[in-house]
Structure formats: C-alpha cells, structure tokens
Amino acid sequence: MENKIISRKFRLLSQLMELHGENSFKTKAIANAAFKLDKLPFKIIDKTEQELSAEQGIGKSIASKVWELIHTGCIEDLEALLAKTPEGILEMLTIKGLGPKKILIIWNTLAIETLGELYYACNENRLIEAKGFGLKTQEEIKMAIEFNMASQGLFLYSQAEKLASSIFDTLKEMLSDQHLLSYTGDFRRKLELLSSVELITTASAEEILIYIEKDKRLIQFDYQENKIRTVHESGLPIHFILSNVNEFSKHLLITTGNQQHIALLEQLYEKGVPNAESEEAIYRQLNLDFIEPELREGLDEVQKAHDHTLPNLITYDDIKGTLHNHSTYSDGVHSLKEMALYCKDVLQLQYLGICDHSRTAVYANGLKEDRVRLQWEEIDSLNQTLYPFKIFKGIESDILGDGSLDYPDELLREFDFVVASVHANLKMDEEKATLRLIKAIENPYTTILGHPTGRLLLSRKGYPIDYKKVIDACAANGVAIEVNANPLRLDLDWRWHRYAIEKGVYLSINPDAHRVEGFHDMRYGTLVARKGGLTASQCLNCFDLEKLDSYFSSRKTSIK
Ligand SMILES: [Zn+2]
Ligand SMILES: [Zn+2]
Fold first, then answer.
1. Spacing, Cα 69 to ligand 2 middle (Å)
2. What is the pLDDT of residues 500-516, one digit of tens each?
3. How far does the centroid of ligand 1 lie from the alpha carbon of residue 450, in Å?
4. Contact 371, 380 (CB under 8 A)
C-alpha cells in the first residue's frame, strides 16, 4: 500500500469526522497525521508499528490505525462514518472548493444530498443565500460539477449548445461563402443528452484542420474516413463530417436521422436513400412529407409522413404565457412584480402563473396560509395596474407521502390553479410512486402534475413510475402534465409525450423559473416537446389569456 493511499484514507477520515461533528481536537490530529503520512521520506509498509509511532506527529494511536489499514484494508472508525454518510455527500467531498464546513451547510440547511441536487441549486441561485457562499463560490462549484458530469461522457443539450454555436460561428466566419456547413446527428435532433456534437461541411479536410489548429479551444484530433474528430477543452467531442457538394443533402439526411429512422427510409427505396438537391426533395422522392429533424427517431414519423398526418410541431412563438414559476415569496430571486413585468414587457406574454412552494417545503420558504393571502392581495393590485396582462394565482403544492396535497380543500379551492409536485421522500418503488401520483391526480384541485419523475439529468434518476397508468389517470381526471423546461429536468420525458397526446392530455411547457432569466428555459422545453410531437393546440400555455381563464374557471366550477 502506497503512502499516498494511506494518507488519503486519513484525510477522508478527518473530513468525515468534521462532517459528523466529532471532537475537534481528535479531528485535527487525524488531519495533521494525513498530511504527515504523505510527506514521510520512507515507505510506510517497510516499517514496524513501533517505528512508525516514534515518528514526530504520528504517535501510538495513529500508528495502530495505519497498521489496521495495512493489514485489514480498512479502518473501523472510517467504515462506521462511511456507513452513515449518503453517497452524494461523499461525492461532494471530491469537488474542488467544497470542504466539510460548506458541505454541512448544504446538507443541513439546504437539505441537499446529491451532486445533481447541488447543481440544480446552483442553477436556481439557491447557494448564494446560504451562509459562507458567494456568487463566485457558486460558479466554481457549478463548473466543478459540470466537469464531473463531463467525465461520464455525456453532456446536457443546454451545455453543448453554447459551445457548439460558438464553434459553428467561428468556423462559418473562417470558411469561404460557397462552403456549406450544418449541424447534424443527435445535436441536430435536439436530444437532451449528447455524447458529441457533429457538424457536416463541404469544406476540405485541410481547411478544417487549419481551423482546429487556430481555435485554441479544440485539443487533439483524429482524421479517418471523411470524419475529423476533435475535443473541446470542456471535454465535449466535436466531430466534423466531410461531404462533397453534390451529395451534401443526402449526407446531411443520413447523418441526422438515428439508425432506425434511416432503416425505415431504406425499406422504401431499393437503392438506399436517394440523392437530391435538398432534404425536402429526398423525402418527396420517397413519397413522404418533410420530416422535421427532431422527429427522426424511427418511431411513427415515417408512417405519418406517408399518410400526411405528421403533427404541426409547436414553436417557441406559439407560447402565450407561462405557468409554474416562483418569486421571493418562496425561493425565487426576483419579486412577483419583477417576474410579471419581465413576462409582460420583455417576453411579451399575456399571463404569468405564479406557483410558489407550499408550506411543507420549509427549505424553500414554503408559504403558510397567511402569506398565501398576502400574495393574493399583491396579485390583485398588480392585476389592476398591469391589465390586460394577468397573474394567475397558483401554488406548487407538495404531494405528501400518502398522495394528499399540502393545504386544506378550503384553501386549495381559492387558487386559480394548482401544480402538484413531489419534492420529498423520493426513494420509492414503482408501485408506491405510481399510487402516490395517482392519488394526487385524483384530487379535484390538481390542475397540472409537476415534474412527474423528479429526475435530474445526469445526476438523479428520479423515482420509477408506471407512465401509462399515470398518464391514463391524468386523462381520466382532466389533469395536464408538465414538461418541466429546466434543461436538467425535461420531465415529462419526450418519449411519453405521444402517449399523453393520444390520450387527449394537455401538456404544459413550464420553466419553473426562480428568476427572470429562468423563463428562457421554455425554449428547451419547446425543443423536447417538438421531439415528443406536441402541437400548439395541445399545449396548455399556448392558450391565449381568455381561453386559459375560462379553462381554469370551468375546471373549478365542475368540482362538486
Ligand atoms: Zn418543484
Ligand atoms: Zn417549482
């Protein structure tokens, strides 16, 4: 066993002792020993326990623990502490800039136990409000977690998009005008998780290699069979596919669709995918309507293109308002008025649904009944001054362990609408989670089911649910399902949108904004909703103000 490994175990032991509030004198002694063990000028395993204990700053007790480690592979004290520390907290110890003191605050005050939740909290600006954290620390932690995510080989679309567009723009500027350049592959299909970004171009290999050489962000490269692979300094692989001008559209089409989509096309035409001057023309040759890139997943799109029944996909401009957002009444960064003005003046929306957290969400400053009423007063007055813009009185009500909502019916019935979401006790099996959601869906006051699985992409799987049963329950009870547009959530997963749409369930693209910038996440929600085949007519927040107002009212009057 190397000195370094022994030293690391002692360092971890001291960190965990601090985390669990053990005697600070003993904790310090272990931390010092860890430092000392790392610096010893000889191999520890070559010495006896007595020799080691004679070393300055080591002593009998440490030496016996070292001995225990060398001979049994573990230290009992360390094992005991490991057993009572959640895995996510241990992962946090590996993040640069996070020591036991900060982790304690994160764990105890913010009730965060996994890296994913921590990343989410950084994105929601929740860290800067906690003691000992500033904007700079929050940004550092966020970057360190992103680096950690990158080591899994997958990237969030929102992360990759920023890098990809800056590469695209600089390359485009460098290439002469006659060259064609396009995104292709998973990125062009707007997949929520990516292992690389692919571009296709008619530029020559030499031109691309010169570009890679010049753009210092791109490191190393590999050139094989019309493909140049390089890696962005963030770890994101960027691939350039080389094509001749004549077959550009065909190559674009073949590299965009996933394998199943291309296989379905090949069945239609003996000689493989034909060539033509544009993608539209190629689909036309195959007797198909044009299929939007987002849909090319090898599901039902080829059949629908043949039958002329492809959906007219939703666009960002179809969105008329935004539901499910937070303000300073609970854990938001901007005030109710700031949120409303941003929607009205900057985004030119017709309405804002405000859904602060309900009383159980203590960590998020959830609203007790008196504060709900205080908020309503402010909404009433803002609605007078901002008319015809309207703020809807909503709430994000916690779904409690037994599936009931967080307020008595007398209060629930006074909201314009209710988003019901699970925030606590996420460890459930499929049966329990499904029953819990269905109970909440059957509550007559539930209008929208919020982030149905609680997943955080790349970091928290979310609880397992029986999607069909949950969606069927929403259909039976006229409850809409949220497509949470936060790029870390994108929950309901787009792979289940079709089923919901078929069942006549409305989807709602909700940014779950905790500050004004958060509203822009609706764009990511729209991208996945397009993959899911959503049309504006089945999206709740594409209703104009009048239609949505009467939708909410009629739902309320139908409750006996
Ligand atoms: Zn929520
Ligand atoms: Zn929320």
1. 47
2. 999 999 999 999 999 99
3. 7
4. no
